[in-house]
Fold this sequence. Notes:
Blueprint: H1 9-22, E1 27-30, H2 37-48, E2 52-56, H3 63-67, E3 68-72, E4 78-82, H4 84-91, E5 94-98, H5 105-117, E6 120-121, E7 127-129, H6 131-141, H7 145-150, E8 153-155, E9 161-166, H8 181-184, E10 188-191, H9 197-208
Parallel strand pairs: 1-9, 1-10, 2-5, 5-9, 7-8
Antiparallel strand pairs: 3-4, 6-7
Amino acid sequence: ASTGYVPTAYHNWLLADMLLSHSVGDVCLVGPRGCGKSALVKQMTDLLGYRTETIQLYADMTARDLLQQRTTTETGDTVWRLSPLVEAAIEGKLAVLDGLHRVHRGTLAVLQRLVHDRELQLYDGSRLIGQEKFDMIKEENGFSDQEMIERGIRVIHPAFRLFALAEPPSVGTAKGQWMSPEILSMFSFHEMRALSQKEESEVLTKMTGT
């Protein structure tokens, strides 16, 4: 089935570069609004056979919003519900963080441990850890997978990756300078430009066949 993706030489080059970065860690694609960032990431995930979870980021998003939300069951009990990001980590999906430039730095700090150490401390007292550490704790204590879960320890799937999408920093405004040293250390960054007029014409020709 057609994905609607129309490649150009520029997109193919950028895609190859992103695939190299993805093979070793988490990636952030920076480009102006409407330049096709989401379409390019979809093409990459289709090529790799990844299941994706898109998380829309917004300015007043809290660290808790990223990890867990309080919800009420049918019986009136209050429980913690895992966020799409945490579920993606457990299930080995590619989590697309759409709008990295919008989020407060303090909220993004919660992602640092996930990126650098593949660990997360959740608000219900449980935690997520990487496969290697999970297996080590299991072996040292003779626990089964189920016993680890009962103790509030879950494993982050080895296939899990983060892919952030962002718009470039705004020149001349302090508010738009979101690229802090901490964020720069978290991802392999790639820049995506808008297509030139010639490239747009090539895409339209391929789409219409004229």
